[in-house]
Amino acid sequence: MSSLHRFTRRSFLRGAGVTMALPWMESFTVWGDEPTGKEPASQAPVRMAVLFAGNGFHSREWWAKGEGKSMELGKVLSPLMPHREKMLFIQGLTNAEAQKGNIHSSQTGNLLSGAPLASGGEIRSGTSFDQLVAQQYGRETKVPSLVLGCEKSNPSVHKNYSMLYSSHISWTSPTTPTPLEIYPALAFDRLFKDTVSRGDRSVLDAVLEDAKDVRRGVSNRDKQKLDEYLNSVREVEQRIENAGKRGEFRGWRPTLDKPNIPRPADGIPQDVGEHMRLMCDILVLAFQTDTTRVCTLKLNNDHSSMRFTNLGIDYMIHHLLSHTDNEDWLKVNQFFLEQYAYLAGRLDSIQEGERTLLDNSMLMFCSSMLTGHHDASQLPVVVLGGGGGKIEGGRVLNYRDQPERQMCRLYLSLMDKMGIRPGAFGDATMALQEI
Fold first, then answer.
1. Widest pairwise Cα distance in the chain
2. Is 254:260 a contact under the CB 8 Å cutoff?
3. Of 175, 310, 316, 417, whose Cβ has the fewest other Cβ atoms within 10 Å?
4. Among 278, 279, 275, 267, CA closest to 242
5. pTM
6. Residue 131, pLDDT score
7. Which of 50, 25, 12, 64 is nearest to 396 (CA)?
């Protein structure tokens, strides 16, 4: 990875068993070096997140046209209206290997790698591009990558393909899906606690004295920013604690008045919307503190059994609903895009020098099929964020009629914005020049 600077100095709050990085502040350089006569001070690093929603989208309402403030969006994408000027709508990209099986697992297991998939009981895909980034870019951070999910993995087999392919989009190696964290409390602990055990006191309680020392030496504006940041950490802690008290697994509907399995000690929110928002907030904290710069958030599985009682839709699981194209399916689609929009809004509200955290990030939203009818001839993709000033938003890019329209070309483009240039990846040998 090429860079003019090494991030040699970081600022942390420390307490017993806790290390908590600080956000950007004007009073001191969080990211490292000071400007010199020859080189400017380092910029905030570029962060990358991949969000995934299974089973595709409404066949008539996934579209965008125009540019900038004048961009028009289909109903599925309507939650993204406030972010149009920082948005790339990309259509026509495809994953050739994913079309060979034409079922959910064969279309998902190599979504982020473009690699051939093994079948017949064997599990072999390819290292996903997020993990390739983590191997190089993650050396600078406490957590190389954060891989989150809101639905448990499915270990069964469907039409000769392992359903682990449908459950994991991030792969550390061709035979190893990256461990998926679905418990918000454990994901949170991984960011801030050096050791995790039951009964640990609050992260904020542990670092409070150190925070008071920092507060004495910063500007009034930074005092306000520090207070807002610590309050946001406390809010997430409290929401996790409350969710655990109600907890049942979500993703399937209990058939008894009382759960017939023990409540998970760390808790998973019963409400799927709350679960997703918690994971989004944890992602924001991870990026805001530079604890990691790479995150994958799988909102649900492909071939998902998730139900949406929070939307008043309880008669059909997500997978079956995806074959309907009715108003409830559109409502579910919009719900997923609302989580994406929420994440972008949170990141855009955090200032890092002259840019926002969204400006310094790349958020890719995708599914392994365009529609619930297994149409993978072109894949649904949206990218939000400026990539550290390297991506121009407010555009629609159409590759449907181009001969070289591999999805892996997009991954080469995103890796390039982070200074990683492998030359080739998956079935692609060149990046998308327009990005």
1. 70
2. yes
3. 175
4. 267
5. 0.83
6. 97
7. 64
Dump pLDDT digits (tens) for 45-81. 899 999 999 888 998 999 999 999 999 999 999 999 9
Alpha carbon distance 179, 172 (integer Å):
9
Span 127-142, average pLDDT:
90
What is the residue whose two structure tokens read 């050096």? 194
Pairwise CA distance, residues 123 & 10, whole Å = 40
Hey, which of 8-22, 84-98, 113-127, 206-220 has the most confident mean pLDDT? 84-98
Q: Which residue has the tokens 């994991």?
A: 168
Q: With 80 as the cut, is the pLDDT of residue 229 above it? A: no
Judge residue 315's burial from the number of C-beta atoms within 10 Å of its C-beta, 0-12 exposed, 13-18 middle, 19 or more buried. Answer: exposed
Contact 373, 410 (CB under 8 A): no
CATH classification (class only), 40-184+289-417: alpha beta
Q: What is the distance between the alpha carbons of residues 144 and 133, in angstroms, rounded to a whole number?
A: 9
Pairing of strands 87-91, 395-398: parallel
Show Cβ contacts of residue 32 under 8 Å, excluding neighbours closer than 6 positions. Answer: 5, 6, 7, 8, 9, 10, 41, 42
Residue 80 near residue 340, CB atoms below 8 Å: yes
Residue-wise pLDDT tens digits, 341-395? 999 999 999 888 788 999 999 999 999 888 767 677 899 999 999 999 999 999 9
Orientation of helix 184-192 relative to helix 272-288, angle to 10°: 10
- Cα–Cα distance between 54 and 322 in angstroms, integer? 9
The torsion angles phi and psi of 163, rounded to 5 degrees, stand at: -75, -5
Question: What is d(CA 110, CA 105) in angstroms, rounded to the nearest whole number?
Answer: 9
Of the two residues 385 and 287, the one the predictor is more confident about is 385
pLDDT digits (tens, 9 = 90+) for 143-178: 999 999 998 876 655 555 676 887 889 999 998 889
Q: Measure the CA–CA gap between 329 and 322, rounded to whole angstroms.
A: 6
Q: What is the DSSP letter of 33?
A: P
R_g over Cα of the chain: 21
Beta-carbon contacts of 57 under 8 Å, excluding residues fewer than 6 positions away, are 76, 333, 367, 370, 371, 372, 380
Q: Residue 91: which of 373, 367, 430, 423 has the closest Cα? A: 367
Residue located via tokens 């790698």: 113
